[in-house]
Write a structure and sequence with these properties.
Layout (H helix, E strand, L loop, with lengths): L4 H25 L9 H20 L20 H24 L6 H24 L12 H23 L5 H27 L6 H5 L20 H6 L5 H26 L5 H28 L15
Helix pairs in contact: 1-2, 1-4, 1-5, 1-10, 2-3, 2-5, 3-4, 4-5, 5-6, 5-10, 6-9, 9-10
Length: 315
């Protein structure tokens, strides 16, 4: 599939934003988000900025953005509609949570924090299901797609939260261990996904798509249906060389998993403010770069079965 920049930014920013919002609500419930100072306000506010920025970026991929609201009406059958509704609904507990954090005497923030966390997790789950339920795209129709979205959102959110805690002088070594846990889980899930799509091949190909290979004969395209690329091939038949994909996976592994894990361990040993801020900032930048690469690969390596009608012997 063509890796559209708007969708890459959307899934990267909103995933980290919802991860940050969910962790803020959960940490507030167990008193890991300090009530004194501005750490909580920065965390919740940053989450809302990332979520809003990601949602706005997603509209750039639409042909008629002003009609996006119509997609919300298909919530009974469409995960895209459910994601949109959950994204909008999550603003209610998130904003009340933020108001309660800033004005604790006026608003009971505790229950709203947990509700915001649940809404954030459900929204990321719905985003993952949009892709996981697309059976015509074998690389996405995989059981590790949804867990991947959840754990990568958690990693991005936890890393940003660690930076905020360090900058506001509320850092605790437990945050480093949690980042390490998320990085490890994310690495296991993502490498498992890459292994699956390398081993699994769709049964659909030129033979089955045309119905000419019922006896197992090899079917090849005699002549291209178009003299130039059309919309279908540009959007759904995007190709990336294997050596380039391998190289990008290696970079992704380093920036998204190895570097944050290493810096998380280092942060548990540092006891000065400046060192913690530099360490967590570098780790946050590394996670952001790695997530952008991972998202680009997620789209670039996926191919629609419709390409079988355009000469692809396998999908």
């Amino acid at each position: 599939m063509h890796p559209a920049l708007s969708v890459i930014i959307f899934t990267t920013a909103s995933g980290a934003g919802y991860g940050l919002l969910a962790l803020s609500g959960l940490f507030a419930a167990v008193d890991w988000l300090p009530r004194d100072g501005s750490a909580g306000g920065w965390a919740i506010g940053s989450a809302l900025v990332l979520v809003t920025g990601g949602l706005l970026a997603s509209t750039a991929h639409l042909g008629r953005p002003e009609r996006a609201w119509r997609a919300l009406s298909q919530w009974r059958t469409s995960w895209l509609s459910r994601e949109g509704l959950l994204a909008l609904a999550s603003y209610v507990p998130a904003l009340v949570f933020l108001a309660g954090w800033l004005l604790p005497e006026a608003v009971p923030w505790g229950p709203w924090g947990l509700l915001a966390a649940v809404a954030a997790l459900l929204t990321v789950y719905a985003t993952g299901k949009i892709y996981a339920t697309l059976t015509p795209i074998p690389a996405w129709n995989n059981g590790l797609v949804v867990p991947g979205y959840l754990v990568l959102g958690g990693l991005g959110g936890m890393q940003i939260l660690s930076l905020i805690m360090a900058a506001t002088d509320h850092y605790h070594e437990r945050f480093g261990w949690i980042v390490l846990l998320f990085a490890t889980c994310a690495a296991l899930v993502k490498h498992g996904y890459w292994r699956d799509i390398a081993r699994t091949r769709s049964e659909t190909g030129s033979a089955t798509a045309t119905g000419l290979g019922a006896g197992g004969e090899r079917v090849r395209l005699l002549d291209a249906p178009h003299t130039t690329d059309n919309f279908v091939m540009r959007e759904m038949g995007y190709r990336i060389a294997r050596r380039h994909a391998t190289r990008l996976r290696q970079i992704c592994t380093s920036t998204l998993f190895a570097v944050p894990a290493m810096l998380a361990l280092v942060s548990t040993l540092i006891d000065n403010w400046f060192g913690l801020v530099v360490t967590t900032a570098l780790a946050t930048a590394s996670v952001a770069i790695g997530t952008l690469i991972e998202r680009w690969l997620f789209f670039a390596e996926a191919r629609h079965v419709v390409t079988a009608y355009y000469g692809s012997e396998t999908v």
